Amino acid sequence: MGYAQLGTRTALTLSLVACGWSVNAATMDLRECPLDRLTFIDPWAGGSFKVERVGGDYSYLCGVSGLVDEAVDGERCKQLGSTVLDGTLQEHAAHPATTFHIWVIWEVVDGSPCCNWSVAWPEPARQVSHEWLTGRDVPLLGDMPFATIERSDDWERSMTLMT
To answer: Per DSSP, what are the bridge partners of residue 107?
Structure first.
């Protein structure tokens, strides 16, 4: 199995077989892979995060119109909000029973730092503010500003509180 070696030592990186394409690995372009087909791999610790579905809760900060729900044609707009990756985290390959169904969330805010990863238990359907995306609405990896999931201090604190 090959890996795209991206990010830092503590980042989960992408498995080249994650998309399930039946083509030669040399011709695959992970940027064209929908997020809901990815498996992020930590080659150092042997853990993985398999994405099962993707949700989004977005607004747009546009030059003239300000904060709006949809990008405005002809204006330069910045997408703000959350991309939610719903899936299964396996902490270490040596311990397959250590799995968690979690949300890994990429959040973009208008400020500094602008973006970060966090982790959370899935919310009951009635409390979800994002919309689950399907089909062609699921973003491609190449459309996102990330290629890895960075396990920050916030991630580690969240996992400690969750377990």
So the answer is: 82, 116
CA distance 59 to 15: 31
> In this predicted model, what pLDDT tens digit does every residue of 76-126 receive, in sequence order?
998 899 999 999 988 776 666 678 888 988 989 887 677 888 888 888 766
**N-terminal to C-terminal alpha carbon distance within the chain:** 30
Please tell me whether residue 104 adopts helix, strand or coil conformation. Answer: strand
Longest dimension (CA), the chain: 54
Tens-digit pLDDT profile for residues 122-156 = 887 666 778 899 999 999 988 888 878 876 665 56
C-alpha distances out from residue 87 to 8, 13, 21, 59, Å: 22, 15, 20, 24
Q: How far is residue 112's CA from residue 145's CA, in Å, rounded to a whole number?
A: 16
Q: Residue 133 — φ and ψ, nearest 5°?
A: -100, 145
**CB half-sphere exposure, 145, CA atoms < 13 A:** 13
DSSP 31: G
Supply the pTM of this predicted model.
0.76
